[in-house]
Amino acid sequence: MSFFGELVSTIFERRYQKALVKEADARTTADLAETLLGRIGEVSGVTLARSILDRYAGMNTDEKLAFFEFMTHALELNPEKVIATLQAYKAEPNKDTYSAFAEASEPKRQELARRLNQVPGATGQLVEMRKDLLSVIKDRPELGPLDVDFKHLFSSWFNRGFLVLRPISWSSPADILEKIIAYEAVHAIDSWDDLRLRLKPDDRRCFGFFHPSMPSEPLIFVEVALTKGIPNSIQALLADERDPINAADADTAVFYSISNCQTGLAGISFGNSLIKQVAADLARDLPSLSTFVTLSPIPGLNRWLATSDIDADSRGQDQALAAHYLLKAKKPDGSPLDPVARFHLGNGAKVHAVHALADTSDNGLKQSNGTMVNYLYDLAKISQNHEKFVSDQTVVASASVKSLSASVKTKTIGS
Q1: Mean of the pLDDT values across residues 375-390?
Q2: CA dihedral in degrees (139, 144, 146, 152; nearest 10)?
Q3: Residue 20's pLDDT band (cuts 50, 70, 90)
Q4: pLDDT of 323-379, one tens digit each?
Q5: Cα separation, 75 vs 107, whole angstroms
Q6: Which candidate, 278, 196, 288, places its Cα nearest to that of 240?
Q7: Which burial class, exposed, middle or buried, applies to 212 when counting CB atoms under 10 A from its CB (0-12, 13-18, 19+)?
Q8: Are 277 and 165 within 8 A, CB to CB?
Q9: How far apart (Å, rounded) are the C-alpha atoms in residues 137 and 148?
Q10: How crowded is residue 140: how many other Cβ atoms within 10 Å of its Cβ?
């Protein structure tokens, strides 16, 4: 096409888009969504999708709730059609019958989300949309199927293969650094000076996963301290007056804070891939590193103690109680009661050591009387430990932790 032809085409396209936008202003959001799901051209589809997203961004809580109800009920699958196509596939399994069943089994709201995602920047807007949904779903359980569909789509869109691991340093863009301060969920970053102490010294590292469609929004990040030996206190690890060491002199990498950043991606697992990738990269870049551990909180300890029938003689033995809780306190399905323990043990780590008064912050004392735990990531045994945990919920632990747990006298194990 000639330059003149391209110019005419562009002018026509822009006028067409303006006409579509003007037309869209007079229609309901539900009507726009139904039209978007119809057979329309690419230009029309993108324009309608943008109109819907722009309109959603300006909605109040009640209007958003109404939109969620529309997506849940008006764009639901047809159970009778699902059953009929499944029976047809069962009777004669082939490409056509399976295709019909697959189409019937997918509610229209999934396709609506895909078409909305045509708009540049829409991925982040859809993540925010699910954040809004999660804020109301507790009181509106009938919206649960919509959340299942969001989670299903996001599990594909945010697959590990699409994620980019990026180092975050003191020289990273300011907007990224501001988000690290805002999203830090384990040990609060009080100031820019505090952040500098975590990012600038040679013995500190930070890494985050990013998605190409959300390049300025970290999905999850991990803060790492390079040390000599395994630390037993977060106060010492983050002390303002500590003396940094050369990274090349460190023998231990400590994952001391892992923060998920996007509420709208709740339930989409990134942390297991992040820790393993960072550990592998650090081992490659710093051959002196031989130990990879966490220094982790024990958020459920005191809640468990409040409902557990622990013998009076064992009360006050913070390390032993923590060890016992991590090894013995279980959910009904047999998995560890503590959420951080489930995460790291599921990744293939083992309970290595527990430390009393390791976190004397208000939150640390409230959660666990200040007790923290090291989970050890033995790179040669991660897969083996993971398989044990997945197959029979085996909690791999060091001999010292097992001994501490055994010293606790209890009549029943609370849950």
Answers
A1: 93
A2: 130
A3: low
A4: 999 999 999 999 999 999 999 999 999 999 999 999 999 999 999 999 999 999 999
A5: 6
A6: 196
A7: exposed
A8: yes
A9: 12
A10: 14
Residue corresponding to tokens 């990012």 = 199
- What SS3 state is found at 267? coil
Higher-confidence residue of 163 and 409: namely: 163
pLDDT score for 248: 97
C-alpha radius of gyration, the chain, whole number: 26
CA–CA distance, 338 with 54 (Å, rounded to integer): 41
Q: What's the angle, vertex CA 245, arms to CA 241 and CA 250, rounded to 5? A: 135
Q: Taking Cα atoms as reference points, which of 172, 265, 171, 166 lies closest to residue 209? A: 166
Distance CA 192, CA 172 (A): 13
The residue among 196, 218, 194 whose CA lies nearest residue 207 is 218
Predicted TM-score (pTM) of this structure: 0.88
Q: Give bridge partners of residue 227 from the DSSP assignment.
A: 252
Query: What is the average per-residue pLDDT within 23-41?
Result: 83
Non-local CB neighbours of 351 within 8 Å, separated by 6+ positions:
323, 326, 327, 341, 345, 373, 374, 375, 376, 395, 396, 397, 398, 401
Q: How many residues does the chain have?
A: 415
Hey, is 202 helix, strand or coil?
Answer: coil
Nearest to 298 by CA among 259, 337, 352: 337
Rounded distance between C-alpha atoms, residue 56 and residue 385, angstroms: 46
